[in-house]
Amino acid sequence: MNNTLAAKNRLEILNFPVDLIKMEDAVLFVENKVMNREFCHIVTINPEMIMNGRKDNELGNILKKADLIVPDGIGVIIALKYYGIKDIPRLPGIELSSNLLKKCSEKKYKIGFLGAQKDVIDEACKNIKAKYPGVEIVFKRDGYFIDEDESAIIEEIIDVQPQILFVALGVPKQELFINRHKKILSFATMIGVGGSFDVWAEKVKRAPVFFRKFGLEWLYRTIKQPARLKRIFPVLPVFLIKVLLHKLSMRKD
Ligand code: UDP
Fold it and tell me: Vertex 38, ends 40 and 181: CA angle to 5°?
């Protein structure tokens, strides 16, 4: 596989592209980008992001222009089934990131982490270094900085030249950050990883295998953090209804 995805592997859900790609090919894709020192923005898309991207043009355009867009949320997998695409496994951002870390460890890539609370990022880096000893963490910074600090952060990143930058500022902050700096940080691959640092720091547990197997990770996270309910709940059914209506309208055409 070269570093352009075959067009046939890219599908659209409500006009938002999604790449149908296996984990090993996604890692290979990123590896090619890193080796060629080409910029790469990875989005791990879910229904909430698509629905927000429909309302907010800036976010929508950023999501649509990303270089690799992998199906993270179960809602995206269900939507793909509506379009007749079966047997596509979810590619959760945290699993893609863990596989990338493994690759970074083997290849001794320089990596950076931006986001989460200070104690979380410190603990996450400690755990990552223990699990993936080959990684060279050249940059880490918590995600609670003021706008005035942003240019100094960017200068620091340019100085240390990470090959992959993991950005955990939550959606849409992380996508907007990546897009704002993609020209000046064009030597890096950047991926928005949401709450992954909290998981790596072992402050938040991933859903047990049962929930993951049946695509119910969102349910587990909602039970653990009920405040998420108002974020997720109206979005998922509305998203699925919209996809269904869109599909029916396509049939008529
Ligand atoms: N975060 C941050 N800066 C902010 C807002 C959020 O660093 O201004 C971090 C937060 O500490 C957490 C992550 O971004 O580690 C977002 O986690 P969440 O589970 O909300 O992510 P999502 O649901 O978007 O994947």
Answer: 55
